[in-house]
Write a structure and sequence with these properties.
Blueprint: H1 3-16, H2 22-50, H3 54-65, E1 70-72, H4 73-80, H5 84-96, E2 100-105, E3 108-116, H6 118-138, H7 145-173
Antiparallel strand pairs: 1-3, 2-3
Helix pairs in contact: 2-6, 3-6
């Protein structure tokens, strides 16, 4: 058997294996626990420096980057990766603080648009610099330039893989 045939068999065996190896699980656990520790540190730092939660920041960021600083709530939910019911509750809290407003969609009476208010825009601008400093402190400063590039490649590979799986699932359902 050629080394090429062995490599193909080894790769297909990896795909067919049901459970990760102990070494694979150790890498997975390290990734999950580290990502969660960074997320918690960013959340606590953002709240302490700006009084903004990560959820607030995600909504404010999406709206600030959208045309006219408004989005349909369904598009916003998809963009930040939240279920619509979670977003609806969160938007209610943000609306009571004057950060956003919700309006019926002009062309569809069933839909709602979420709009960034002037107070919301000011809050976003005020929280952006502290947020970016925290990203640098908790993530970027921990990595050498070549490690940062490697993390970028790994993240792109994981995202591409997830997109391929989603496409396969969509095709299987069609």
């Amino acid at each position: 058997m050629s080394s090429e045939d062995e490599a193909v068999m080894e790769q297909s065996g990896k795909s067919a294996r049901q459970s990760p190896t102990p070494d694979e699980l150790a890498v997975w656990r390290e990734y999950v626990e580290t990502a969660e520790a960074i997320r918690q540190a960013l959340a606590a730092g953002l709240q302490a420096t700006s009084g903004v939660s990560p959820g607030d920041y995600a909504v404010l960021l999406a709206l600030s980057e959208s045309e006219g600083h408004r989005l349909r709530s369904s598009v916003l939910a998809e963009g930040i990766g939240w279920e619509r019911s979670r977003l609806s509750h969160h938007l209610g809290r943000m609306e009571s603080r004057g950060l956003i407003r919700r309006r019926k969609s002009g062309n569809d009476s069933r839909g709602a648009e979420v709009e960034l208010t002037d107070d919301g825009a000011r809050t976003f601008r005020a929280s952006s610099a502290p947020h970016l400093r925290l990203v640098r402190r908790f993530f970027i400063d921990a990595l050498a330039p070549e490690d940062l590039e490697a993390v970028g490649r790994v993240a792109k590979s994981l995202r591409r893989h997830l997109e391929e799986i989603a496409l396969e699932q969509d095709n299987a359902q069609a």
